[in-house]
Amino acid sequence: MRCQRCAAMFMVCAIVAMSLVIGVGSPLYAATYNWKLASVLPDSHPVHQALVAFAEKVNEKTNGEVVITVYPAGQLGQEKDYIEGAQLGSIEITKVSSAPLGQFSKTLQVVSLPFIWRNLEHQHLVLDGPIGERLMADLEASGFKGLAFFDAGSRNVTTSVRPIRTPDDMKGLKIRVMQSEPLIETINALGATAVPMGQSEVYVALQQKVIDGWENNEPTVLSFNMQEVAKYFSYTGHVSIPDILIMSKQIFDSASPEVQAAILEAAQETIPLQRQIWADYVGEATAQLKEKGMEFNEVDDITAFQALAAPIHKQFEPIVGADLIQAIMDAGK
């Protein structure tokens, strides 16, 4: 009888020990791959929802073999840190703007050129087609595996000083931009002074009047509460730079063919989801910003801004290729 009690006690202890190791509701086997997905956007941002969906899709398609943990709100640094981390393999996956990534893959700078997109449909047509495939392929030489382009709206000047109605209103203003040569040149061409700066520094810089404004889209303004320090939102629409989901090429190449296929499939399935989330949220974000006191205005004549920025296309021909610029401009005509 005593032996039976000992055996029963042993079984109970073994079950408890196993539950502590595995965890309630956890799969019996540990994941083969545990990867990080880094983003500077807070978890309240609509793009974050798409990143979570992507991670879940990969986990499902690999039957739990891949676990991706999303780190939002700049927990692992700024976008430059993520890009460099992906090159080194210390960060497996990241969502960044195509603008700073263009400093590492020159042809990608073409998507940051001013007024290169006629509308959102034109941008989708290009990025979903052969040109988008070429831009993704070009990333591989720099150590990245391109997974998906995401909508990020048009970027518009937001200031604490005055609304922007004409290029003259830009004069004398210091405007924060991402670290992107096309974006820097664009803001300078429009009459302001571009100030490259990490996202985490912008709020305080506006608050302390180190800068007079920045440029971004409505959801991002709301997510970072920028209406508190820059109340004027002017629809300059000078650039429309897509976000991009990338992976460290060395990490991607080290995965099994089955896992690689699952990642690419999950990324493609996430694209329409992200676009819908984005489209649904822009109007809601604008309404909330208005309720919080932000003032919106159209510019008087967008062609005046376009004329000032036009020479930048020529300036970047030696960098991205005149043929690539022309192919984008001609697409869908």
Task: Describe what you observe in this structure.
- Helices cover 48% and strands 18% of the residues.
- The protein has 333 residues and is α/β, with parallel strands linked by helices.
- The chain has three domains: 1-28; 29-151 and 242-284, D-Maltodextrin-Binding Protein, domain 2 (3-Layer(aba) Sandwich); 155-240 and 285-318, Bacterial extracellular solute-binding protein, family 7 (D-Maltodextrin-Binding Protein, domain 2, 3-Layer(aba) Sandwich).
- The protein has a six-stranded mixed β-sheet.
- Helix 7 links the parallel strand 6 and strand 7.
- Mean pLDDT is 92; it is low at 1-28.
Biggest sheet features: 6 strands, mixed
Radius of gyration: 23 Å
What's the arrangement of strands in the largest beta sheet?
A: 7-6-8-5-9-11
Distance between the termini: 88 Å
Total domain count: 3
Q: What name does CATH use for the topology of the largest domain?
A: D-Maltodextrin-Binding Protein, domain 2
In DSSP terms (H or I, runs of 4 or more residues), the helix count works out at 15
Question: Under the CATH scheme, which architecture of the largest domain would be assigned?
Answer: 3-Layer(aba) Sandwich
Sum up the overall morphology in one term.
globular
Helical fraction = 40-55%
Poorly predicted regions are: 1-28
The CATH superfamily label of the largest domain reads Bacterial extracellular solute-binding protein, family 7
**Whole-number average pLDDT?**
92
Structural class: alpha/beta
Number of strand segments: 11
SSE sequence, one letter per element: HEHEHEHHHEEEHEHEHEEHHEHHHH
